[in-house]
Structure formats: C-alpha cells, structure tokens
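RECORD TYPE: inverse folding
INPUT: structure tokens
STRUCTURE:
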C-alpha cells in the first residue's frame, strides 16, 4: 500500500524514488507546466536538480502499448510523462546514473 506521502507527491505531479546507490529520496517532476523531467533531492535543497534523460518504453511491453495508445488518443500528458519514467536519472546527491523505472517507490 502506498504511503500518504507518495500519494501526495503523485497528486502534485511528482514521482518519488530512491537512489539505488545512496538511497537518497528523490523527486521526479512530471508537471507539464512546471519543470518536467527535473530530478531533485527531497531532503537536501542545496543540491541542484538534475535532468532525467527520457526514453520510450519498449514497444512490446504494456507500457509501450500504453504510450502508443496515449499518442493515438491525444492523451498528451501521459505521452509526455511516460518516457521520463523509462529514462535514465542522475542522482543529485551522489552522481550515480540509474534507470528511473528501477528506482520508483
Ligand atoms: Zn545517490
């Protein structure tokens, strides 16, 4: 079951994750009108946010089909956000590169 904290982040267009190396709590911004793709530390505001390098999910996966359908049906928010969840992140705390999908909480 998701925590109240995670639900709040998602309602705000933010996706929480933990760095696989230093376990820092990180926040991916998925707000289309704000700073889509920004990855920041949830606890250390002194670290500058990094940018997630977006990548489409493989076509043969459920997520790849979701991306295809969202584009077909003009679900532009989903089509814009989904590649960030399959991209590569760079931890603003310890500088480790990682696959975003593997770090989601
Ligand atoms: Zn880290």
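DESIGNED SEQUENCE:
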């Amino acid at each position: 079951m998701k925590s109240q904290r995670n639900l709040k982040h998602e309602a705000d267009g933010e996706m929480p994750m933990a760095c696989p190396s230093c376990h820092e709590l990180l926040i991916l911004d998925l707000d289309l009108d704000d700073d889509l793709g920004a990855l920041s530390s949830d606890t250390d505001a002194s670290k500058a946010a990094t940018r997630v390098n977006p990548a489409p999910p493989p076509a043969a996966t459920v997520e790849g089909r979701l991306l295809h359908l969202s584009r077909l049906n003009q679900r532009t928010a989903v089509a814009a956000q989904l590649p960030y969840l399959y991209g590569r992140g760079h931890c603003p705390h310890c500088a480790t590169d990682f696959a975003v999908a593997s770090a989601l909480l």
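NOTES: The chain has four helices and six strands.
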